[in-house]
Amino acid sequence: MRVLIAGAGLAGLSCAKYLIDAGYTPIILERRDVLGGKVAAWKDKDGDWYETGLHIFFGAYPNVLQLFKELNIETRLQWKKHTMIFNQPNAPGTYSQFNFPDLPAPFNGIAAILRNNDMLTWSEKIRFGIGLLPAMIQGQKYVEAMDKYSWSEWMRKQNIPSRVEKEVFIAMSKALNFIRPEEISSTILLTALNRFLQEKNGSKMAFLDGSPTERMCQPIADYITKHGGEIRLNSSLKEILLTPDGIVEGFLVRGLSGKPDYVENADLYVSAMPVDPLKVLLPKSWQQQDFFQRLNGLKGVPVINVHLWFDRKLTDIDHLLFSRSPLLSVYADMSNTCREYSNRDCSMLELVLAPAKDWISKSDECIVQAVLAELEKLFPQHLTGNNKVKLLKYHLVKTPLSVYKAIPGCQECRPSQETPISNFYLAGDYTMQRYLASMEGAVLSGKLTAGAITKAHSEVNSSNL
Ligand SMILES: Cc1cc2nc3c(=O)[nH]c(=O)nc-3n(C[C@H](O)[C@H](O)[C@H](O)COP(=O)(O)OP(=O)(O)OC[C@H]3O[C@@H](n4cnc5c(N)ncnc54)[C@H](O)[C@@H]3O)c2cc1C
């Protein structure tokens, strides 16, 4: 059976991989000339990589880890020390760490929090712990029910001092969804905390050893093509064509360089596009259906990934850092954290700028100036005074509509991978799965889609016997 998939992000690639394993023939149509969607990366004229986003893998990513194992590329994940490092705005250039000792969960997480005295007082830690009790006792059901509150509202409801939000959770919200605690659904933070506290290595972090396009997407693509599947770059889905019964008849693909559009047919169809382009392409007769109408509650959030190359080393920290800066979210010196980007003499900082709503339409020069001004607080010893480091070059990747903005009420809008249309399925980090908008969520969604297809089809087969 041929399955046509629109989108070669991690969801589309994972869906195709697991369809191959189940004996199907997937054909992926990708709009751009590069694999990976939100993990895509490019090489500049000097041979240096720049990426759509600074990407971190967590111990709590079972499906990504399983996929790496199946492709025999596990050694490409460079695991870092089990710690979380925060900049200290009140003492520029210094750090505060949450170190996770080698104890079973949740004791390692509790010990990490209790032993950090830079950021929270004992009374704040105790009140936060008490506030978290319902989530720990009632589990996922409670976490889902809290989707009606923003994180700030939930913290107030649980009587947790506002300083806890300021010290820890502005940084966490920005890292998880590129927005602030007043906006983010409390389900997002509670889900992450649950994973981090319930699994011993849940919050342990890894960096890929090179560019995600080459080191992660290409092996998935090779597996797909080696086993009879196909991936066509520069192939944009232009229209979903319907039969008179309202199911999919074919995908109309945009012709390039003056070539005419063409129709591609298959037995089954999958959208692995992000939710924003999918909404634009929904056929009129589907738009009235409640299932598709709920997609209107989901919209991508803007974010900017900034890369700065310097003439000297700024730090030797080999880890992710939470900047706790108003302009920036997380960052890392990729010359330390990533084997292929390694440089013993010069730093390459990759920084996520979020929230990016007010910056996304500004010029690259203007954004870089603002980032450099922020860096004076993070690296005062290198960016102020007479012996300042020199910025050699920069690259910015702006994503105006990235992962769905996880505001209160969104969980209800997230669709299942099966749709009311019998030959049309959805994959993508925004579809319903327990890992939210992440690489793990995208990979799991693709796997769930392949599973739903296999299940529906084997049922059709057995009922035909
Ligand atoms: C700055 C940034 C930092 C991030 N950091 C992390 C992190 O540290 N850890 C983590 O787990 N996750 C992180 N994420 C999230 C993660 O990248 C995404 O959740 C995941 O990659 C989404 O995969 P996807 O396949 O669902 O969607 P996408 O990657 O968006 O893939 C969709 C694909 O569909 C294609 N497409 C669109 N329209 C059409 C069309 N008409 N025809 C054909 N193809 C089309 C697109 O070109 C794209 O390739 C980050 C994201 C960003 C932007």
TrEMBL record:
One Pfam match: Amino_oxidase
The family this protein is said to belong to: Belongs to the carotenoid/retinoid oxidoreductase family.
An annotated GO cellular component: plasma membrane
Entry's EC annotation: 1.3.5.5
Protein name as annotated: Phytoene dehydrogenase
Coiled coil: none
NCBIfam families in alphabetical order: phytoene_desat (TIGR02731)
Membrane topology: Peripheral membrane protein
Functional pathway: Carotenoid biosynthesis; lycopene biosynthesis
